[in-house]
Structures are given as C-alpha cells and as structure tokens.
Amino acid sequence: MGYIYLAVVLFTGFTAAIAVFSRGRVSSVVALALASVGLTASFYLLQAPDVAMAEAVISAGLSTALFLFALRKMGIRGD
User: Fold this and answer.
1) pLDDT per residue as tens digits for the range 40-65
2) How far apart are alpha carbons 22 and 12 in whole angstroms?
C-alpha cells in the first residue's frame, strides 16, 4: 500500500498545484475536481470508505457542478 498511497498523494498535490497556479478558471475548477478525486482515493486507502464517499459526492460532485454553474452564469465558457 505504501507506493500506491504515495502515488495518490503526489497526484493530489500535483493537481492541487495546477488548480492554484492555472490561469484559466475552468481548468482550475477541473484540476480542483481531480484533486478531490485524489483525496477520495486517499481516504479509501486509509480504510475510511464513509469519508471517501462523502468527499466524492460533496467535493468532487456538488462543488464542481456549483463552480461550473457559477462560471456559466458569469458568462465564462472556456479558458
């Protein structure tokens, strides 16, 4: 589990850095969703499937949809 967990943590950190330093708003939201998926995998590997499920539904699903809806309402369609 050590190497798999390390890969998940590196993936999460990499996508979170992309979300912070990306110049495009939509690409930042997508990178944030991918970081949330990495957190979900991390929680699952730590044997907390209930927390992983909540993270997947709320952060990866609802928050991403809400951010994209807000960007659409602001008139931002792409990068």
Assistant:
1) 999 999 999 999 999 999 988 899 99
2) 15
